[in-house]
Design brief:
88 residues; mainly alpha; 5 helices; 72% helix; globular; DUF3263
Length: 88
Protein backbone atom coordinates (compact mmCIF):
# COMPACT_ATOMS: atom_id res chain seq x y z
CA UNK A 1 0.00 0.00 0.00
CA UNK A 2 1.58 3.33 -1.02
CA UNK A 3 1.82 6.25 1.36
CA UNK A 4 -1.35 8.26 1.83
CA UNK A 5 0.51 11.47 0.90
CA UNK A 6 -1.61 13.50 3.33
CA UNK A 7 1.35 15.29 4.84
CA UNK A 8 -0.42 18.58 5.58
CA UNK A 9 0.25 18.25 9.32
CA UNK A 10 3.95 17.46 8.88
CA UNK A 11 6.76 19.94 8.31
CA UNK A 12 8.85 19.78 5.14
CA UNK A 13 11.70 18.31 7.17
CA UNK A 14 9.46 15.61 8.65
CA UNK A 15 8.16 14.68 5.19
CA UNK A 16 11.75 14.53 3.92
CA UNK A 17 12.79 12.29 6.85
CA UNK A 18 9.97 9.85 6.11
CA UNK A 19 10.87 9.83 2.43
CA UNK A 20 14.53 9.24 3.29
CA UNK A 21 13.61 6.32 5.57
CA UNK A 22 11.51 4.85 2.78
CA UNK A 23 14.44 4.96 0.34
CA UNK A 24 17.70 5.47 2.25
CA UNK A 25 19.25 2.21 1.02
CA UNK A 26 19.35 3.72 -2.48
CA UNK A 27 21.93 6.28 -1.31
CA UNK A 28 24.58 3.60 -0.73
CA UNK A 29 27.31 3.78 1.86
CA UNK A 30 26.86 4.42 5.54
CA UNK A 31 23.51 5.80 6.66
CA UNK A 32 25.21 8.37 8.89
CA UNK A 33 27.06 9.75 5.88
CA UNK A 34 23.88 9.84 3.78
CA UNK A 35 22.07 11.68 6.59
CA UNK A 36 24.86 14.28 6.80
CA UNK A 37 24.78 14.81 3.01
CA UNK A 38 21.00 14.91 2.65
CA UNK A 39 20.04 16.89 5.75
CA UNK A 40 23.26 18.61 6.82
CA UNK A 41 22.74 17.45 10.41
CA UNK A 42 24.24 14.89 12.73
CA UNK A 43 22.84 11.38 12.83
CA UNK A 44 21.88 12.00 16.46
CA UNK A 45 19.71 14.99 15.51
CA UNK A 46 18.19 13.05 12.62
CA UNK A 47 17.28 10.08 14.81
CA UNK A 48 15.73 12.38 17.42
CA UNK A 49 13.47 13.78 14.70
CA UNK A 50 12.70 10.31 13.37
CA UNK A 51 11.91 8.98 16.84
CA UNK A 52 9.46 11.82 17.50
CA UNK A 53 7.85 11.17 14.10
CA UNK A 54 7.17 7.55 15.04
CA UNK A 55 4.93 8.83 17.84
CA UNK A 56 3.23 11.44 15.64
CA UNK A 57 -0.29 10.47 14.48
CA UNK A 58 0.15 12.59 11.34
CA UNK A 59 3.18 10.51 10.32
CA UNK A 60 1.23 7.32 10.93
CA UNK A 61 -1.63 8.62 8.80
CA UNK A 62 0.80 9.70 6.08
CA UNK A 63 2.62 6.36 5.74
CA UNK A 64 1.22 3.70 8.07
CA UNK A 65 3.28 0.78 6.76
CA UNK A 66 6.59 2.62 7.10
CA UNK A 67 5.81 4.04 10.54
CA UNK A 68 4.58 0.69 11.85
CA UNK A 69 7.71 -1.06 10.51
CA UNK A 70 9.98 1.53 12.09
CA UNK A 71 8.06 1.28 15.38
CA UNK A 72 8.61 -2.51 15.38
CA UNK A 73 12.32 -2.03 14.77
CA UNK A 74 12.52 0.56 17.56
CA UNK A 75 10.65 -1.69 19.96
CA UNK A 76 12.88 -4.67 19.17
CA UNK A 77 16.02 -2.61 19.72
CA UNK A 78 14.70 -1.23 23.00
CA UNK A 79 13.93 -4.77 24.18
CA UNK A 80 17.39 -5.98 23.16
CA UNK A 81 19.05 -3.10 25.05
CA UNK A 82 16.94 -3.79 28.14
CA UNK A 83 17.77 -7.49 27.97
CA UNK A 84 21.48 -6.69 27.63
CA UNK A 85 21.33 -4.49 30.77
CA UNK A 86 19.64 -7.27 32.73
CA UNK A 87 22.23 -9.82 31.53
CA UNK A 88 25.18 -7.84 32.87
Amino acid sequence: MPPNNDTSELSELEVAVLEFERRWWKYGGAKDHAIRERFDMSATSYFQILNSLLDNPAALASDPMLVKRLRRIRSTRQSERAQARVSR
